[in-house]
Amino acid sequence: MSEGSQGLLLAGVGGQGVILASMIVADALMRAGHDVKQSEVHGMAQRGGSVFSHIRWGERVDSPLVPLGSAEVLAAFEWAEAVRWVEYVRDGGAVVADVRTIVPPGACNDHRSWLRRYPGIDGELFDSRHLKTRLIDATATAEELGNVRAANSVILGTVAAFIDIDNKHWEAAIAHLVPKGTEEINLAAFRIGRDVAEARVPQTAPDPEGFSGPHQIEINHVWCKGCDICSRVCPEYCLAVDVDGKLTIIDAEACTGCKLCEALCPDFAIEISAPREPAVVGNQAAADGSTL
Ligand code: SF4
Ligand code: SF4
């Protein structure tokens, strides 16, 4: 039996840092004097599968699992995961969702139809249950701060507004658990997220017309360790790691912009952007294999 406990659910896909975020939440709650239980599932994490974590806290907690319809807050690191897990939130609870969209791996060979089936990003979707919805573009905010890796701290900042513990516990947990050297940027990201008072409707949504042409692939070779995750998951076989362990682009024209590689890279070393202008022949950047 758990006495006076509350629950929170974090959900995303492999590579998004859901587990680290969950550890930060649990650490902050323990610093605030709560009994905390946490559990996580990340079996398909490296293939873009769903990753989620339950956290319960209170005077005494015996089970880490949050019963359906009882969570105070759902923190979704990707929009489809918000829709998938919203049933766990109690009526009147809160949903904090990043509006980032990530193509499910199984849908990559059917890009056009996936774009039609992806759940529409709509801040009013949960209104009938009186949920407090915060849609945030955490990735863009973190990029503006100078490090896309801080996106999850933006989300945690918004989540913190719905959990009644002192800010100092959040900041101490972040400083304790994020990678060394990133403490300041993560704390700045957290404070920005905390200031999100109103639901924001996203500026971008999946293109209903489907595949709009080859996208630009950019590899940061300083960060890339040649782990081969991105090339193995790419459904169009655009990437390969050569015999020297260097990631190269072998078929830029086939890139559909699904962003699976970007989402799953553990080192944020690959970036996909909008379709480039037609035919740039003899491009020097393309010639050195790092930017197309
Ligand atoms: S870009 Fe990322 S996923 Fe791909 S090989 Fe480099 S480190 Fe691994
Ligand atoms: S290289 Fe292009 S097609 Fe391949 S996973 Fe990345 S975004 Fe998708």
Strand and helix layout:
Blueprint: E1 6-13, H1 18-31, E2 35-41, E3 50-58, E4 71-76, H2 79-85, E5 89-98, H3 111-117, E6 132-136, H4 138-145, H5 151-160, H6 167-177, H7 183-194, E7 215-219, H8 229-233, E8 239-241, E9 247-249, H9 260-264, E10 270-275, H10 284-287
Bound molecules: iron/sulfur cluster (2 copies).
What attributes characterize this protein structure?
292 residues, alpha/beta, Pyruvate-ferredoxin Oxidoreductase, domain 3, Alpha-Beta Plaits, 2 domains, 6-stranded mixed β-sheet, two-stranded antiparallel sheet, 10 helices, binds iron/sulfur cluster
Structure description:
The protein has 292 residues and is an alpha/beta fold. It has 2 domains: 6-194, Pyruvate-ferredoxin Oxidoreductase, domain 3 (3-Layer(aba) Sandwich); 215-287, Alpha-Beta Plaits (2-Layer Sandwich). It has 10 helices and 10 strands. The protein has helices spanning 18-31, 79-85, 111-117, 138-145, 151-160, 167-177, 183-194, 229-233, 260-264, 284-287; strands at residues 6-13, 35-41, 50-58, 71-76, 89-98, 132-136, 215-219, 239-241, 247-249, 270-275. It is globular, with a radius of gyration of 20 Å. The protein starts with 5 loop residues before the first strand and ends in a 5-residue tail after the last helix. Mean pLDDT is 80; it is low at 199-211 and 277-292. The structure holds iron/sulfur cluster (2 copies).
